[in-house]
């Protein structure tokens, strides 16, 4: 089966639910209800009011595939930015996610394509997010290898001019830790 180049929100929703619903080994086993939603205009800034309401930010950089809608060129990137806002309030946890796109180098049309993620990368991103949630919402100590080993892939240099997150000053290529 080929690597998907399509942005599939249901893959994220289903994987999120599966990781939380595993009765014997739930990633957030505190009895709270957690939900995942998408906001395609999410930024890496929190207002004072949002901070008071408990919102936190996590930025993740991972592997995904892209396909240009204009010229159909396919490319892979190990430097795809995902932005998460999350909070726990009154036994209800909320996660809001935004994927950032990349522009095609070939046709230079300044159109950002959304990424297609392999299942394994979706799980890796969510497991890292859950580790941040356990640390910041439940006070758990964070193990250095809590999400398993990270496969370092040798890739081309990050092309800031083609990165939607860079164009908005949000890119997390230098540091994939949370801001809070």
Radius of gyration (CA) equals 16 Å
User: Taking strands numbered 1, 2, ... along the chain, how are they ordered across the largest sheet?
Assistant: 1-4-3-2
Low-confidence spans: 145-152, 175-180
Distance between the termini: 39 Å
Gross morphology is globular
The total of beta strands comes to 6
Summarize the biggest pleated sheet.
Answer: 4 strands, mixed
Number of helices: 4
How much of the sequence lies in strands comes to 25-35%
Structural domains: how many: 1
Q: How would you classify the helix and strand content by structural class?
A: alpha+beta
Order of helices and strands: HEHEEEEEHH
The helix fraction, in percent, is 10-25%
What's the overall average pLDDT, rounded? 86
Domain 3CxxC-type: 61-169
Protein name: Receptor-transporting protein 3
Membrane topology: Single-pass membrane protein
GO biological process, one term: protein insertion into membrane
Written account of the structure:
The protein has one domain (9-168). It is 23% helix and 26% strand. The protein has helices spanning 9-21, 48-52, 119-138, 164-167; strands spanning 33-38, 56-67, 74-89, 92-99, 102-103, 112-113. The strands form two sheets. It has a four-stranded mixed sheet, with helices on one face.
């Amino acid at each position: 089966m080929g690597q998907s180049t399509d942005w599939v929100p249901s893959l994220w929703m289903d994987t999120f639910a599966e990781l939380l619903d595993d009765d014997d080994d739930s990633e957030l086993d505190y009895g709270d209800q957690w939900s995942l939603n998408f906001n395609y205009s999410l930024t890496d800034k929190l207002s004072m009011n949002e901070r008071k309401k408990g919102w936190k930010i996590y930025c993740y950089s991972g592997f995904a595939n892209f396909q240009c809608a204009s010229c159909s060129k396919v490319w892979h990137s190990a430097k795809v930015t995902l932005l998460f806002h999350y909070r726990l309030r009154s036994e209800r946890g909320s996660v809001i996610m935004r994927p950032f796109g990349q522009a095609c180098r070939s046709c230079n049309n300044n159109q950002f394509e959304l990424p297609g993620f392999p299942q394994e990368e979706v799980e890796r991103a969510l497991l890292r997010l859950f580790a941040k949630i356990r640390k910041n919402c439940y006070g758990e100590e964070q193990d250095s290898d809590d999400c398993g080993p990270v496969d370092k892939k040798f890739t081309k240099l990050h092309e800031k001019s083609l990165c939607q997150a860079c164009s908005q000053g949000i890119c997390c290529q230098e540091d994939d830790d949370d801001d809070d």
